[in-house]
Amino acid sequence: VNDKRIIYTKTSKLAVIPKSDKALMINLDGEYGGDAPMTFTNLHQHIEMFANLDAIPNEAVIGYEDEEESHYDAVTKGFIKEVEKLSQEDIDGDGKIGDEK
């Protein structure tokens, strides 16, 4: 963005404080957001999404398991079971250590 009136930054917290008594209007995504001073805090991953999953292809949805992902999950579970045997601890919370019945 090449405009001296726009500040582009990546941060977790930003305080906007006017340098003079003149009102400093804040633009939030194209809408008037009020006058400074203001403090903005990035609430990382705090946007809740809703969707009609029936209208979205399965492979576009997180949690959709294809053959490769199923293999990966099986390998991961096998690894966890082996670590449980070595450590004698229930790592995955299934109430068992390794493959014990």
Automatic annotation (TrEMBL):
Protein name: Diacylglycerol kinase
Keyword terms: Kinase, Transferase
GO terms, molecular function: kinase activity
